[in-house]
Amino acid sequence: MYGMSEALDLSDKRVLIIEDQKAFQVMLKGLLINLGAKEVDAKRTGEAGIAAYARRPYDILLVDYNLGRGKNGRQVLEELRQRGMLKPETLFFIITGDNTRPMVLSALELQPDDYLTKPFSHRVLRARLLRAYKRRMWLRDVFKSLYNKDYEQCIEACQKHINAQSRYAAYCQKLQIELFNKTGQLDAADNAIEHLLDEGGQSWARLKQAETRLLQQRPDDALELIAAVIKKMPNAIEAHDLKTRCFLSKEAMDDALDSARIAITMAPFSIERQTLLARIARDSENYEIAKQAMNNVLQIARTSVHRNVQHLCNYLRAILDAAEHAETRQQIAKYQTEATMELQRARFDENLVYSDISFETIESILLSRIDAFNGRLREAQSRLNQIFGDDLAAGNSLPEEVSFDVVAILMDLGEFEKADDIVQQYQQLFTIDEYTQRLMRDRVSRSEQRRTQFRQMHERGIQEYEDRRYKEALNSFREALKMAPLNSGAALNFIQAAVRYCAEANSDNEIGFLKKECLSCLRTLQGMTLTASHAARYEQLIKQTARFNLS
Questions:
Q1: CA dihedral of 467, 472, 477, 480, whole degrees rounded to 10
Q2: DSSP conformation letters of 176-211
Q3: Is 329 in a helix, a strand, or coil?
Q4: pTM of the predicted protein model
Q5: What is the pLDDT of residues 468-526, one digit of tens each?
Q6: Domains in the chain, please, with CATH?
Q7: Peptide bond into 485 cis (omega under 30)
């Protein structure tokens, strides 16, 4: 089963070069032909390369990391895997002339079959291709089960190679331990690691042991192991990521932030790593770092398989989050201007071009949030109703991309009941990313005191109205509207209490002072798209206020 010729026959292999420099394309194609390849194609962009592979898969891909505009080599590999297109027998090589640490670590992070630094010789190319091909063929059973995500089968396949003491036993040991941890078989991972360490295991075994310790909720033990690994392997990005997770487990936020920032400087081109940094920075109340990290996520995602308008929305939220926590009016104005400028730059952004939601919708929601935060509540309400007024009145679900922002606006307006309904819909219909979840929890928490005071005064007013104590009810509804100036239910209840109070009042003087407040409530309601029940009450109250000269 495991025999393998020392020769690599390229004559029956289809090879694809993805390289934006024509001269290097020609040179590399010549090297491959000299090695016996008969079918070699070349594309200049990542997008064209993916399309070519989709039409008919290749046996070998040689992809430059830097491809100019569009997808880079890492993103090509990521997309082929994400879409389930990359066949288990295909070899994927990343090629680059840039050997700086961030680029190298980011390229290696996705574990291509190999990595070549320009320039390289005919002999080096042949040796690397042969090495990768032999490994891929020798472990075909392992890669097939891994491709199918049959982890138990993959664990068994690894064990066969380990028992046979094949030349790739060390790779299989490492993969098996990773899968034990991934599937929650921590005792099995422990046993495999201990066996390796008894045989004088390498640093990666210590690193996997640290991962197991963290999964066992022993972060201090994990940190001790990680420190030893980093001392021997300072560029082990996986160790720095694991260190960050350990500090998070201990709720040591300052240490977690420092660790996450070190990992970012080492390998910055990861959406997961940048998003984690944003989350940690925000939890540490460092809103500027969180904002920058979400901007990095947007830039990385722009040409990747993860392209999504949600990244644009999250970046805009991070800017507004920084504004809402700023200490001076100048800082607030700076962040709000930054948000509007970023939105204008994004008008023709690919994240929006390929989205179902329109630029105008995002623009209106952003401006409505800014208006609401700055106290321009009627303007905020007007913009919101132009976009989603009918949907809010009918209780329809809103687009995932802006649901959080609508919740934030409604809470600022004091429409707590509607905000609660949208939060419930949002959580039931969509898988909310962790960053947005944290923003949501924070927004709900910050409004809780105002919401509680509103509810207490509003419920008191309702009880006083039912007890026919209309003057006291007016005072309670008045206080409730101070907490929620544009709450439609409170506005309707104030008008209704005013009508009943006027019906029993003995003098025009007592009626006169209510007119201004009733007019204000009516103007509030005029700007809203009301539910059917509220709309019916509103029409009835219009007639009743006219009888008492309150409108």
A1: -110
A2: HHHHHHHTT-HHHHHHHHHHHHHTT--HHHHHHHHH
A3: helix
A4: 0.85
A5: 999 999 999 999 999 998 899 999 999 999 988 888 875 566 666 788 888 888 888 88
A6: 14-138 (3.40.50.2300), 454-547 (1.25.40.10)
A7: no
